[in-house]
Fold Alginate lyase domain-containing protein.
Amino acid sequence: MRCLFLLGALAAAVAVHAANVENGFGTGNSVKGYIFNSDVVQHSKIDKDVEEISNAMNDEKYSDAENVFTNGKNSDKVDDNGAPKGKRKLADFSKDLDQALQSMPGGSPFNLYNMYKNYHGNAEYAKDFVLDAMKQQGQFSTVTDKVGRKELAVKGTQYQVVFMYTIYELEQARVYCTSDMSKALHSWDEGWAFYVGSKLQTNVAAAEGQLGYTLASKRAVADNGASGQFLTTDASSDQTGTRVWVNKKLQTLFQTGKGMLATAACTEVESVIKDIVAQMNVPLLQGVLRYAQNSKRSGVKGRAEGYAFAMAIVPQLHQCHNSIGEGVKTAMGIDESSVDIDNVRGWIIEGLKCLGLTCADIWNFKDLTNVVYKDKVRMQCGPAILGYTPGNLDKSVYQHSRIDLDIRDMENTFGTTSANFQVAKSIFENGQNSHKTSQTRKLAAFSNAAYTDMPLYKVHTEYWGDGLFARNFVLNALDNKAPFNKIPRNTEDGIRALKELVIKGSQLQSVWMYVLREMFEAVESCKNSDIPTALHSWDEGWVFYAGSLQVMEKSGKLGYALALKRAPQFKNRKGEVNDRMLALFESGKSAISQSQCTLAADILQQVERVMTIPVVQGLIRYIYKVRQTGKTSLKEKAECWAFLASVLPRISQCNKAVGDKLRDEFFAFTSNPSIEHTYDVDEMVSMVQSTFPCLGIECDDVGNYVEGTSERTKQCYDWKIRNNQFGGYQGSTDVTQHSRIDLDVEEFETHLKASDYTAAKQIYSNGKYSEKTSSMRTLEGLTKDQNKDMLFNVYKRYWKSKGRGDRYAHDFITDAIDAKGEFTGAPAVARKEGAVKGAQYQAVWMYVFHELEDSITNCKQADLLANDDKNVHAWDEGAAFFAGSRVGTLGLPKKGGKLVYTLMEKRAGDFGDSDSSHIARTIALFQTGLSYIVAGHCDKAEAIMHQLQAALTIPLIQGLFRYLYRADPNSDYHKSKPEDQPKSKAEGWAFAAAVLPQLHACNSQVAEQVYQNMRYSADPIVKDGYKSVVENVQSLFPCLNINGSHVGAYSESGKVIIPRVEGAELPGSNDASCSNGWKVTGILFIILFILLVGFVSIRFYCRRNQKMHDIDLTSQTPNSPSVRHASVDRYASASGIQLGMVDDKALNV
């Protein structure tokens, strides 16, 4: 409806004055695009009074200025009959305008005016403001500078007196609309006259004027950038391509309002008046921003101008929120104090929505020489906060973001050799910059024992035994209380250390946790169907992460800034964390908006993991820096502890032994500030890295610490399996969880190193990292009786002959943990080696073959059309248990993993093979076996499995040889390092136990010799000498299908200890087999053809009968190509296998 009125009004205006030109304030004339219906020439001359006041104040003729203001001079009034009625007086513009409006027929309250009257408690507030400046009295009694008095008087007249009277004329027009259309249109014309002024009646430059139009023109930058101080931040434009700026908008609004009056749309015109007020506020706000620049406040003129602009808008800001108005008023005072422009900008942003404006209306500050300030972005504003657009735009989160200013102010209380701890404590406990509705937001309150309903907060509370852990961390440093009471408070190093504890404790514990608290509350509100509250809480989470300083392109103080700071220190990770955080927050906002609360909860967990990355980076950085000789300071020790303390509860939850080790090492400085650390950096960092999977982060997330141009910490690897590829093996199914059993082994080992046998049993029996559908995969579970497996039965029969039960591997491992059986009386190092290697090379090793045998059984027995996943998935599982998760996609250097793959790498170097050649051969076998399984060649896959058995036995043999030598009392190694004997014995026994059943199957006497020489309890150990035992084992290589050249020669310190021997040349390993290649290819081509025919036949039959279960397959064997085609197509594609090119040549193991 409003649009119809507008169109009618504009059409009428065009018809009345089709050839309009700029020609004055008379009836039918136009000034600055507005067409007058009445004569307002005299009204427009009020600007000449303003000009005379300005000149008089400049000449210090204060009484003359007061006389013009009080009695008028240039603007004549007339009565209804046109008779002179005296002068129009600016002082009268400041009468009680609400009373005047309500006294009119059909009158109503003047709400805008009442805001100002009530704020000041004075109906003539504007008049008093001007006269106090002219007379140097009242509120300006201390302003002695003539320039300051002039700016206050003139701008008070322009932007309080005339500003309000302009709106009063519009309100009068609205009231007259229902009773006297002529007066209504005349009052509306008067409004434009009082906004523009007589000096702009033709094409005079806007700068010549004295009223609102001129101010708006000064503030706005035209298209050519020739004038003005505020650049647009967007490309909004009208149909002519001219920038949409205040005066252009106001001209349109005034024309629109007049059209509505002309058509008696009296109610609708009220909304236009509100829009006009909003636009007239823009240059006032821009004036505040301009004079909030400290460079503009260096003299009294700038301070007076800033205060005058502020007081022209403060009552409206106060109406929006009392803290906003008072914040701007206080900040823009006329004293000589400096102004924090960020605070002023923040207050204004906070009030924009209430004022009916957006940041696009305010624009961006520019100096008078047309050179945009480098920090111009400090003036930009908008709903987006570092790229994030709040989900609930009805509730501002700017005040929340200002919590970083409290951290900044606390930081500033620390000097070089002293600190004002009481001031810092007051800011922390009472708050200073982040205002709430009726109080100030406090960092100390971010710790709350009631937050234990949040799982992560509960983890921290239970670890520290304190629901106020973050609060007390900071206060203990400020109050000189334990554990920080031994840090000197009168030295530079001590003050720096305490500063780091206070600031990083606030950042990394208080605010870090509160980000997640807000998100947690958002999810809970979402579950309760309170979406607006949920979105607001989610928005709060983002600003507690981002902060207000970061938005200003300053050095931030919260999580966003930490991520930026750490990124370049950890090699090519700049901005990545913040990009991920932004994407997650946006996704979470979208999920909440659609009431997808479960999804939002999942995103919360992802945010927690990503926020952990820069914290861990900080910890690793200071683990390195603390250790550097001659560079260690209390500050670095304190920073290391601050980073560690913020993540320690979760590290300990992941691995208690690691947590305890880190805490013991880095908390020690609190009781002994001068302690000198001697730990191995790589070992300590590796311990932290071992918890990454549990923390939900990857090595690739964290990167490697770089200082200068060098990486200072050991290589950290990405353990994630991508596209079913790991260790160079390309699988067809997802076996990520299976591969993660190596993480259980890793933690198992960590607990055993710390002699924490209870924790070791816990992870051994219950698992932790390798998830199954409804439970956890466990190391103990891998030792179960697999009586259907051929290889397992070989081992079971052997160990039964030695008095073991069916779960021989479990017995071996638990004997080592509990110091029973062979390990009775064994020291901790021997128990650790026995238990860990028993898990690796008996439990997991055997389970590789359990999966491969399972795959072959499924291949031979299963109907792939009914169940075409089992066989392929089981083969992939076998490969996963061989490689583990730590080897990454393509494999990694030595010591990366914990399973047989890594043992191959380690032993290869000891036995003269390249680090990767034997692994390459083994991976090729796994890959070939998969191709046979996919193609349905079950027997060929079984042959590959036997070759894999030999391949995976080689590193066990190598381990046996290595420790036969080292444990031999007559060996050079033992003589040089007798203290290693328990470790060597345990490792030798573990490797012997892993291979003894196979040796026994070949030759029981050789096996018994190994048993008697290498069992841990043997006394003496290696009684026959390592050479004798080794030679007898080597004699079994042909039986074991092991190629002696692949075992290699064992060397230490460049000396060959055990020479290489040649062994079995396995079937298909000679070059002659290559001649069979074309035959194989031809056979496979025929197979492929049969598959194609079978496929077509089955498709035809399926379509005819419409149901797959109607196919009669009884006449076909389980391995028939026509039965297997469905699986072939799928898995061949997934594995990148070309069926016609499978090479049947067996690989030489």
The longest helix spans residues 492-527.
